[in-house]
């Protein structure tokens, strides 16, 4: 099993986008990329922790590749919006890929470059590609939020 970590706006919808794909073993939402230890949702929403809302995906690479996960990531949000997705604004909603290995970094950079040269977006891609750091799991009520509340994916 391998892990991949993505930030693409509100983590509820991002988790929902990944959760039912064959080869995904598990997902969990949380906070990553900031400077505060043990942040809470309130800390992250205050825009003072530096963390992004993110989803950590555990996947079976014999069933789904990291490149395929990148395709889901690019499709589930607008990677040309800086520090926002739709009506949600703030650095916690930034677009970011937190790579777990040099191979993931290279694939993410290549994928971002290809998207940037495509005609899909009208604005430049602003997605950060940064090393994985400590992932702080979000509060239980955020985990599998759409499944618990019978809501569909919001994109």
Structural class: alpha+beta
Determine the fraction of residues in helical runs and give it as a percent range.
25-40%
Low-confidence stretches: none
Task: Please count the beta strands (DSSP E, at least 2 residues each).
Answer: 8
Widest beta sheet: strand line-up: 7-6-1-3-2-8
Average pLDDT over all residues: 92
Major sheet attributes: 6 strands, mixed
In CATH's first tier, which class applies? Alpha Beta
SS field, number of helical segments: 5
List the domain count as a whole number: 1
Mind telling me which CATH architecture this is?
2-Layer Sandwich
Range of strand content? 25-35%
CA gyration radius, whole angstroms: 14 Å
Terminal CA distance reads 28 Å
Summarize the helix and strand pattern as letters: EHEHEHEEEHEEH
CATH topology, by name, is Peptide Methionine Sulfoxide Reductase, Chain A
CATH superfamily heading: Peptide methionine sulphoxide reductase MsrA
Shape: globular
Record keyword descriptors for this entry.
single chain; 155 residues; alpha+beta; Peptide Methionine Sulfoxide Reductase, Chain A; six-stranded mixed β-sheet; two-stranded antiparallel sheet; 5 helices; 28% helix
Describe the model.
By secondary structure, the chain is of the alpha+beta class. The chain is built from 5 helices and 8 strands, in the order E-H-E-H-E-H-E-E-E-H-E-E-H. The protein has helices at residues 11-19, 41-45, 66-75, 102-117, 145-148, and strands at 2-8, 24-32, 52-59, 84-85, 88-89, 95-99, 128-131, 136-137. The strands form 2 sheets. The chain has a 6-stranded mixed sheet, with helices on one face. The protein has a two-stranded antiparallel sheet with strand order 4-5. Strand 6, helix 4 (102-117) and strand 7 form a beta-alpha-beta unit. The mean pLDDT is 92.
